[in-house]
Design a protein that fits this description.
By secondary structure, the protein is an alpha/beta fold. The chain has 19 helices and 11 strands.
């Protein structure tokens, strides 16, 4: 599918989301890029739309009454019409209440798997809103983890989750959490929240007083969900074809660069992950003097997180092209940086004491500052990569790579590949 067709489809989805969520007002810019003189700002609706087209679940956190659920329902209506399920979790919920599968009939052999799961909206619908998942009791938590992975079993039989597409099963979930100790009813397994590839901390983007005034004046527009039933096809088509958007070569280098953040020049294994790392190891290392010893206080994101970052950048690139059509038809570094905080927040290893002491305890603020400094280091790295690509001698290429690795623990695909070779 051509990119221009994808642009038409996402433009329609964006317009429909504006219709179904017109009652929600938050004029904060959740992210912004400037390309070729075009300033493109993204709001929370855009982030939720991107989650849908790349097939990555979203977790919205924030205080109660901030509009998380109503906004999520509006977005789901625009995307899937009547084919989404809204479920509020309670601490007394049991697995059958959540998943709505006839476990007993399946166990007793009275129903086939198809018959047992047929009434389950949680299994069959393409869209799910799960409210207040911090209230989920432990028996349901055990079910939620494989459910978020889209692969769980009922009485020993594999249950297909979502709708079948050319890229496998598809189901988009938006989960909400009322943030703060007073809202926590049960201890929650972090593996559940880790499954949400995109996290939106709504408290970092509070509504302005004028937003509240505008919401008070607005009447909620009642939309007929049936009007939007045809949009599910658009979502799936974008999901299946978004890889048609190429990426700038710097994008892959940057993502592989992020994968090296756990490297350590002072570690005997060259990694912070494989030793009992502590900050005393950083003493005497020239890297420790950079930005409050950034190197010693962060760890590399997991491969799953980096894949989500790559997908997020694709989604942002498509939305950018729908907004500013005279920008390059490929994923740019700016798309990656624009989406990175929503992917890395709560997914990147960071020294909590360091966050408390240097960033007033705000992980979101820490992530933003970390990205600025990592991008600066990456620019230095790319200048070495350009030297390598302009160098005709293989021996000189290897020397440049070797010299970088001896002084810098972080590097991307080009230097990683060269540094594994030897100079004859």
């Amino acid at each position: 599918m051509e990119i221009k067709e994808l642009i038409k489809k996402i433009t329609k989805l964006k317009e429909n989301i504006r219709k179904t969520t017109s009652h929600y007002v938050n004029s904060h810019k959740f992210s912004e890029v400037e390309i070729n003189g075009n300033k493109i700002a993204y709001d929370i609706r855009d982030i939720l739309l991107i989650g849908a087209i790349i097939g990555t679940d979203v977790l919205i956190t924030g205080k109660t009454g901030s509009g998380k659920t109503e906004l999520s329902k509006g977005v789901m209506t625009a995307l899937f019409g009547t084919r989404y399920w809204n479920k509020t979790v309670t601490y007394s919920m049991n697995p059958s209440d959540f998943i709505d599968i006839d476990f007993k009939g399946l166990r007793e052999g009275k129903k086939s798997l198809k018959e047992a799961i047929e009434p389950s909206r949680a299994v069959n619908y393409p869209g799910i809103v799960l409210n207040e998942i911090n209230r989920v009791p432990e028996p349901v938590q055990a079910l939620l983890i494989p459910f978020f992975d889209r692969e769980f079993e009922a009485e020993g039989k594999e249950v297909p989750v979502g709708v079948q597409t050319k890229k496998g099963r598809y189901q988009y979930r938006i989960a909400t959490i009322n943030e703060g100790e007073r809202y926590i009813v049960v201890r929650m397994d972090e593996a559940i929240t880790d499954r949400a590839g995109i996290v939106i901390p709504l408290d970092m983007f509070p509504q302005y007083p004028e937003d509240v005034v505008e919401m008070l004046k607005k009447k909620k527009r009642e939309c007929d969900p049936n009007e939007f039933n045809g949009n599910e096809k658009l979502v799936i088509e974008i999901f299946e074809n978004i890889d048609a958007i190429p990426e700038d070569e710097e994008v892959v280098e940057f993502i592989t660069f992020l994968s090296s953040l756990s490297n350590c020049l002072k570690s005997e294994t060259k990694s912070k992950e494989t030793i009992e790392f502590n900050l005393s190891i950083c003493q005497g290392c020239h890297q420790s003097g950079y930005f409050y010893n950034l190197c010693g206080n962060i760890w590399a994101p997991s491969p799953r997180v980096l894949i989500n970052l790559y997908k997020m950048a694709k989604g942002l690139a498509l939305l950018r092209l729908a907004t500013a059509k005279d920008t390059p038809e490929k994923v740019l570094m700016k798309d990656v940086i624009a989406g990175a905080p929503f992917i890395l927040f709560r997914k990147m290893g960071i020294n909590r004491d360091w966050v408390k002491n240097k960033f007033q305890g705000s992980e979101w603020l820490a992530i933003e500052k970390i990205l600025i400094n990592i991008e600066t280091r990456f620019d230095e790295y790319m200048s070495e990569v350009k030297k390598i690509k302009n160098e005709k001698s293989q021996i000189e290429k290897l020397k440049i790579a070797k010299e970088w690795r001896e002084r810098n623990p972080w590097y991307g695909a080009t230097i990683s590949e060269l540094s594994r070779k030897t100079i004859d």
